[in-house]
Amino acid sequence: MTGQAGRRPAYFPWFVAPAAIAAVVLAAAMAALLQYAFRQHVPGSLQVGGFTLDNFGRMSSWVYLRVFADSLLLSACTAGFSLVLGYPLALALVRTRSAALKSAILIATIIPLFTGDIVRTYSWLIVLGKNGFVNGSLKWLGLIETPFELLYTMTGVTLALVQYSLPVMVIILSAAISHINPDYEKAAASLGAGPLAVLWKVTLPLSMPGILSGTVTIFAWTLSAFATPQLVGGGKVNMVSNLVYQLGFSNFDFPFAATLSLVSLALIFAILSLLGLATRRLEQAGFR
Amino acid sequence: MRIARRLVVLSVAALASVSVHAQGKISVSIWGGSWRDFVAEHVGKRFTQETGAQVEFVTGGTIDRLNKAKLSKGNPETDLIFTTSHVGWLYASDDLYEKLDLAKIPNAKNVFPEAMISPFHLGAWSYVYTIAYRPDLVPAGFKFASWGDLWNPKLKGTIGLPDFDPSHIIYAAALLSGGKSAKEWTAGQKKLLELKPNIKAFYNSDATSQEKIGSGETPVQVLLSSNAYHMMSQGVKIELVVPKEGAIVGIDTVGLNKGTKNAELAYKFINILFDPAVQTTLANKVRVSPMSTQAKVDPAVAKLPGMFTTASQWKEQAIVIDHKQRAELLGDWRKWFTENLIAK
Question: Considering only alpha carbons, which residue of chain B is nearest residue A128?
């Protein structure tokens, strides 16, 4: 029985081969990145110089540290707001008995995934602009005379990033909430707990793995966001990837761009490791 | 009988394909969009008519194409490269260009001296980066006469600058601060920092530049002249100014890929590019300055700001930053600009 089950089918290598090729290509790219991070930049040339640790020394400049800090702050805000907005949507999506409402939530949250991020970001330029939808509406209502500065600000970039991330957060949370047996909530209600108490003391704790997973996923993928901060930030709000682009493709300083990429990558791995650790702790504590 | 007829048809088809192959094909590396379309329409078609050879365009951004050329060094993917004058020096310093034989480009005899960028690349057309503004969105009656007007406190939070190449504003600030050449750019650092309150945003491409001035988010920009003329043709009210100090010239160039196997055809292509008739169409339609002294530019177009059609205009209105120096200094400029104006 064991021998039969353990034998791999003949087509197995054909299934593994594409993954192996992708892994080799990725490893080669990572090796190139690693190598570039330790090389000198030669001004006015595409060639890199000898080996050096200077690029890592430059990282201590507060200018670059601030971009990292801004990136972490934007990622944290995006993850937090996506969670706050996404949780009620996911809960309604899973618990509602109305097929129409379920479809409406699904369409409203998932459809943005099918538009490209450039299209979505450009639409934010129209919405947030001085003469855009938000300022235009407020002016029309007579609530403001001078338009709010929403573009090229942290607020504008966060708004656009949250809208970009929300579908993914809803999908992750819905998966987690759908695994919670509704009988627990019914039992709590039958013992006198109100809807808020049920949510706070039963549903939320039981959906903690999904909350953690969704928050960290959004945090990590926002940390590598490029198009949204590039367009909505207008060069006034920069994340690490924008700086990498500027240094590499405008300045031709590929070594320092590689160093920033490497540090950013290490940061994301560290965060994902923390997620793994936290998830294991939660599982040990009985949350599944 | 039927078999014989088929054999005849096949033979004719085979001969036709041999003929096309013999006429050849060249591959041209160029930016996408209107630049590619223009060169394809006005140079490519005529080249095919005259030589029978086809033209294949490989499009991409300036730096993307530079990287591709570097990766395919020794066995180039293309025969000809269009790029900016200073990035052309990066091709040259990395040994990615063939030295040009001007005897094979008879039309190059009639170009302005400013077109002779290096032994490897020739200026094909020029434009300026200068002050452009929306008169309806700046304080009433505000006029620009000098680069120094960008520092006027009335323009707080209105200016858009390119983030991919800060050389224009850096050079202008240096000039205003007593610097005499690109090497003395540090003279303008303090002045540049004083510009920060007036900067609203940075743009990273022609498209975002046009979006920002079109929407009025940055009603004042240091803008590429042909982009300004394009926006004007779309109905956006824009004023373009050549300040009294002059406008910063940008020159797009053409060069041969090192190791090209189609050098003879590539030279013919370049020669057509410098044909006065092609250069005339270039100026009249795209609003870029011709490099041929023989171009017959429409007088109404010739007098537009940023159009240089005479030697005296080049002398009086154009600021040409030494291209090689610009390539060498761009790294330092970008670093300083990123650290002090963008990221700070």
Answer: B217
Q: How far is CA A211 from CA A24, A43, A69, A81, A208, in A?
A: 34, 47, 23, 12, 5
Contacts of A254 in chain B (CB under 8 A): none
- Rounded Cα distance between B103 and B302, Å, is 30
Q: What is the DSSP string of B22-81?
A: HH-EEEEEE-STHHHHHHIIIIIHHHHHHH--EEEEEE--HHHHHHHHHHTTTS-S-SEE
| Strand intervals (E) in chain A | 39-41, 48-51
Flag if A235 and B202 touch (Cβ within 8 Å): yes
Encode pLDDT of A124-148 as tens digits: 998 999 888 999 999 999 999 888 8
Compute the distance between CA of residue B239 and CA of residue B241 in angstroms, rounded to an integer: 6
- Residue A235 to residue B165: CA distance in whole angstroms: 13
For chain A, the first-to-last Cα distance in angstroms comes to 31
CATH number of the domain enclosing A156: 1.10.3720.10
| Distance in angstroms (rounded) separating the CA atoms of residues B26 and B263 | 9
B138 touches chain A (CB under 8 A): no
ipTM of the complex: 0.75
- In this complex, the residue of A129, A151, A238 whose CB is nearest that of residue B342 is A238
pLDDT tens per residue, range A86-113: 999 999 999 999 999 999 988 888 888 8
Does the domain at B127-249+322-342 match CATH 3.40.190.10? Answer given as yes
Per the structure, the count of domains in chain A is 1
